[in-house]
């Protein structure tokens, strides 16, 4: 059975209960949320200035809170599996030393966003964070926290309201405070997500074009392997560096500018690993454009085929998949009515995404459960709204 996605109002209610417990007040002044994302195709292309096709999820991070009179900040998390202190306090007075990354690690995202916020000085605040985005599950729990905090701060002190600049500030927070040299996809889709639409993002111009998912159409099934990935400790930074090496060898600013013909021409001068990394990026960028076109036409079989090609390339050329994700994808593809399936996000654990006919959902879940060596969780999802301010009654 697919799990149900918790309602945003339930998360807000949980955060408000904690707010009352922690601060002794009934009603916070502000409530906001920002979603996680699933990437349909275009993996490891964003930091190569290529294309990506993600959509915002109904899974969100909620922040509720109020302004403090001074510059003191207290934040409490209700995250279920936080194995670190759930409360952190610091002062924004003086230099920025209070914002240095440390423990608890979840608070580093908050500190990073404060540090890179586009208006200063920021007032102090007290806030509670609650999230339905699985932590470390490849669905951008970190970007959703960054964007939720930024959106919350915008209610306390307006920053001019430019969405792209907001995404870039949140991305910077991830670079400086989580040590992950991520691209821009996760933050941008968490801000700009639209109900019923995937977003084709040009990660060079940062232009975003909506790609409607027409109803009644196929469904999107997310399968969490529950194998936690750790981007910071993983090979993510190494992949990025390998791509830069390939671009330099090709005499290009980024792999976005390279063609397979040009890559073949320098093959003899390139290390085989670098060649394979570059090949993935060049072909994945092209696949993403084709996939967006296929989705617009409702050509789901073609879209599914491109998803599978993407997965195979991530497995064989980019080497960011793992046995568990491969098992889940292979199992999904054995079921009638499945158009395509692939790992999604940075890799090394986390989730797969599967496009399938509505009548095949139960069969697909059962089959994946049977074939999978671990314990997976499943949910059906649809494209949802990006970051927003929530009503408080
Ligand atoms: C992670 C990163 F944060 C994104 O920027 C992107 O590179 C993705 O991995 C891989 O496509 O989610």
UniProtKB/TrEMBL annotation:
Residue stretches making up the GHMP kinase C-terminal domain = 291-373
**Where's the Galactokinase N-terminal domain?**
18-66
InterPro entries linked: Galactokinase, Galactokinase_CS, GalKase_N, GHMP_kinase_C_dom, GHMP_kinase_C_sf, GHMP_kinase_N_dom, GHMP_knse_ATP-bd_CS, Mevalonate/galactokinase
Question: Where, if anywhere, are coiled coils annotated?
Answer: 275-302
Q: Could you tell me the EC number(s) of this protein? A: 2.7.1.6
Give the similarity note.
Answer: Belongs to the GHMP kinase family. GalK subfamily.
Primary role: Catalyzes the transfer of a phosphate from ATP to alpha-D-galactose and participates in the first committed step in the catabolism of galactose.
What's the name of the protein?
Galactokinase
In its UniProt entry, the species of origin is given as Oryzias latipes
């Amino acid at each position: 059975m697919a799990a149900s996605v918790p309602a945003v109002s339930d998360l807000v209610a949980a955060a408000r209960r904690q707010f009352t417990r922690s601060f002794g007040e009934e009603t916070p002044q502000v409530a906001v949320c920002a979603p996680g994302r699933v990437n349909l195709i275009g993996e490891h292309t964003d930091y190569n200035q290529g294309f990506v096709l993600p959509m915002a999820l109904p899974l969100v991070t909620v922040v509720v809170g109020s302004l403090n009179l001074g510059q003191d900040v207290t934040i409490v998390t209700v995250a279920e599996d936080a194995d670190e202190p759930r409360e952190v306090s610091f002062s924004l007075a003086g230099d920025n030393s209070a914002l240095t990354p440390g423990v608890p690690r979840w608070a580093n995202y908050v500190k990073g966003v404060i540090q890179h916020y586009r208006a200063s000085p920021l007032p102090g605040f007290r806030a509670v964070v609650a999230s339905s985005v699985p932590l470390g599950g490849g669905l951008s729990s970190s970007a959703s926290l960054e964007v939720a905090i930024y959106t919350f701060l915008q209610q306390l002190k307006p920053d001019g309201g430019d969405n792209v600049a907001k995404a870039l500030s949140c991305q910077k927070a991830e670079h400086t405070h989580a040590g992950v040299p991520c691209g821009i996809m996760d933050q941008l889709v968490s801000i700009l997500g639209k109900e019923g639409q995937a977003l084709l993002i040009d990660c060079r111009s940062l232009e975003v074009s909506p790609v409607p998912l027409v109803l009644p159409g196929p469904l999107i099934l997310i399968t969490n392997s529950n194998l936690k990935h750790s981007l910071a400790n993983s090979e993510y930074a190494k992949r990025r560096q390998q791509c830069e090496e390939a671009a330099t060898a090709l005499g290009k600013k980024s792999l976005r500018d390279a063609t397979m013909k040009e890559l073949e021409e320098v093959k003899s001068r390139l290390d085989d690993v670098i060649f394979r990394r570059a090949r993935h990026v060049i072909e994945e960028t092209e696949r993403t454009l084709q996939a967006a076109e296929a989705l617009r036409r409702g050509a789901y079989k073609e879209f599914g085929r491109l998803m599978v090609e993407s997965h195979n390339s991530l497995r064989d050329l980019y080497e960011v998949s793992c046995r568990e994700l491969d098992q889940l994808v292979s199992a999904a593809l054995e079921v009638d009515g499945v158009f395509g399936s692939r790992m999604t996000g940075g890799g090394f654990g986390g989730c797969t995404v599967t496009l399938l006919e509505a009548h095949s959902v139960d069969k697909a879940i059962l089959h994946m459960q049977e074939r999978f060596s671990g314990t997976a969780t499943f949910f059906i999802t649809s494209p949802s709204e990006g970051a927003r301010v929530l009503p408080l009654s």
